[in-house]
Amino acid sequence: MTEHVEQLEFQAETHQLLELMIHSVYSNKDTFLRELISNASDALDKLKMASYQDKDLEVDTSDLHVELEVDAEKRILTVRDNGIGMSKAEVVDLIGTLAKSGTAQLRKQLLEAKPDQAAEELIGQFGIGFYSTFMVADKVALTTRKAGESEATRWESAAGSSTYTIETLDSAPQGTAVSLHLKTVDEDDHLFDYTKEWKLREIVKKYSDFIAWPIRMQVERTISEGEGEEKEEKTVLEDQILNSQKALWTRPRSEVSDEEYKEFYKHVSHAWDDPLEIIPFKAEGTFEYQALLFIPSTAPFDLFMREHQRGVQLYVRRVFIMDNCEELMPEYLRFVKGVVDAQDLSLNVSREILQQDRQIQAIRKRLVRKVLSTVKDLQGAEDKTSYQTFWKEFGRVLKEGLLNDFDNRETLLQVSSFASTHSDDQPTTLTEYVERMAEGQDKIFYMTGESRHQIEASPHMEAFKAKGLEVLVLTDPVDEMWVGSVTEFDGKQFQSIAKGEVDLESEDEKKESEALREQQDKDFGDVLTWLQKALDDSVKQVRLSSRLTTSPACLVGDVFDFTPQLERMYRASGQALPETKRILELNPTHPLVTGLRDAYFQNKDAVDSGNAPELGETAELLYGTAVLAEGGELKDPSHFAHILTERLTRTV
Ligand code: ADP
Ligand code: MG
Predict the structure, then answer these.
(1) Architecture category of domain 515-651 in CATH
(2) Secondary structure, 3-state, 375-438
(3) Ligand 1 center to 348 CA (angstroms)
């Protein structure tokens, strides 16, 4: 090896993934070419864009293209582009390592993966396009020179190796060439012989026809020369373009097959599976543009990671302008993929201009409505499978829209689904909830928490269960947020069952219980005052409850208080918050509570003058148990354990 060649180790996960790829039984090996052409096309887009933005960049953009080259004897297939190219650091970073943010996730999935079926799923999820070459090649070499740089880089690795080499070259044509040393194929397996012209033509036509750049190949053609006796057959080499280059979004829907749309989706979104929904549309009038959007059928692993990018590309009159155009899609629709091609923008638009542009704002508004109405259609369809898939994959993201998209709030509420006590496994829409509301019920009840189990077992739920009232079970972190700002649906207010006072009685019941309540208040009077003093550090009020049937006590918040979960979320994100004290509600019929009341009155003087520590401890135990019952954390668990142990020792 010369001193220019460095040998580097693959990341462990990357190596494992390559192993999967090599031994994959993935039936559709042809797709490796789609991936290489897709990368080449991206590289050409990027070069074109760079040359607009940087007038000093010395590059020739007069003949941007992709080229396939076959050496049948040596069984080498080369895919070449004269696009943006990569620097040495980029090669190591982009080709030698997988997306950093996904590594932990990938590691986990590799551990759980079943070898034979894992490859396809993993490929799809982690978008490892370039590595798919190892499905068909024993050795892969990549030579690249970045636009504007003079040195070039060569990367090479053999199938199954845990290392790759990197070499610096003095020169190379600008752009990237990927050479595959193809595996040998059996005679009867010629369907997978990628040195064959017909095979390459077929793949390009099937997967890459819409690519905007020409995909060229030198082919042999037989021509006749001369006349009559002189006539002679001759074989000549000729450059042919294999793809039609027709931008899919400019063609009427009736002329494009679903297959074509699906392949285009795989190109723009770097996905390997089919989209859930295809949304082509065209706007004419003041602002003219065409859009082709897709709702994916699986959520990418990094949907909730900070680096996740929005998936809509901006074109201006067929010219690619930018990936990840944030101005075209709100963050809560970041999973939507596709392209928007605007007629009247300048090719030089920058992000800054886009942010101000009225046309872009109008387009965005329209795109959002279009996506939401598509979801609504899925929801309204006879067969709900697509809607269910959509909601499972993207519901959590969509609900983020409830926080800030005021214009579409009503629609968002309509298309959302929530777990509820009505059914263990079928989520409900709000419309369905409202239809089922009990007579006299005028609120939509919900409870937020960390898990369904925790919510259902919480004391707050008792009276609702007893009365058969449906409660929405909200366990996504985003639920904590939106319930704070969305007040009603269809004229019905949202009410947390863990906040404020609950009033579940009908007018008749109210009259009946009024007398009882007055009596209870009288009976307890001083006890509540004492308890409040005894628990002053932990609670802001002690009162009698109408929501408990079996538990002695529970904690509730005031209507505008933070819930404990929300507090924890804020703290976890590093924000300092004053502690919110909550309200302790007591079940006036529970023996522990009535017992405590009676004991208080029997020793009133001693208790009030601080000479009955026993009762103070009972109060602490009562409070601590209420914290534990809702799945909360005690401030001083060892103290709680200590007084409980003492108490148990005496009664064992
Ligand atoms: P993806 O295309 O989904 O990002 P790939 O594995 O196909 O994943 O490619 C990884 C990265 O390597 C690309 O994002 C790109 O930055 C770089 N790359 C791959 N092929 C080329 C190419 N022909 N020209 C320039 N960069 C390339
Ligand atoms: Mg790719």
Answers:
(1) Up-down Bundle (1.20)
(2) HHHHHHCCCCHHHHHHHHHHHHHHCCHHHHCCCCHHHHHHHCEEEECCEEEEEEEHHHHHHHCC
(3) 25
The one-letter amino acid code at 404 reads N
Q: Where in the chain is the domain with CATH 3.30.230.80?
A: 248-386
Which parts of 437-548 fold into alpha helices (H)? 452-457, 462-467, 477-482, 507-534
Q: pLDDT for 298-314, tens place per residue?
A: 998 888 877 777 789 99
Q: Among 130, 208, 266, which is best to mutate for testing ligand 1, by the most ligand atoms less than 8 A from CB?
A: 130
Q: Tell me, what's the pLDDT at 511?
A: 76
Chain-centroid distance of CA 349 in Å reads: 29
Confidence band, pLDDT 50/70/90 cuts, at residue 56: confident
Identity of the residue numbered 458: S
pLDDT value of position 1: 44
Q: Please list the residue range(s) of the chain that carry CATH number 3.30.565.10.
A: 6-227
CATH 3.40.50.11260 region(s) of the chain? 416-496
Architecture of domain 416-496: 3-Layer(aba) Sandwich (3.40)
Which residue among 10, 11, 33, 42 is best mutated to probe the pocket of ligand 1, counting the most ligand atoms within 8 A of its Cβ? 42
∠ CA 133-334-300, nearest 5°, is 40
pLDDT tens per residue across span 352-397: 888 888 889 999 999 999 999 999 999 999 999 999 999 999 999 9
CATH code for the domain defined by 6-227: 3.30.565.10
Q: How far is the CA of 270 from the centre of ligand 2 (A)?
A: 6
For the domain made up of 248-386, the CATH class stated in words is: alpha beta
**Segment 126-175, tens digit of pLDDT:** 656 788 898 899 999 999 999 999 999 999 999 889 999 999 999 999 99
Of 418, 439, 426, 398, which is closest to residue 489 (Cα–Cα)?
418
Largest CA distance in the chain: 133
Report the pLDDT value the prediction gives residue 297, as an integer from 0 to 100. Answer: 94
Q: Which residues line ligand 1 (CB under 6 A)?
A: 35, 39-40, 43, 81, 83-86, 94-95, 127-130, 176, 270
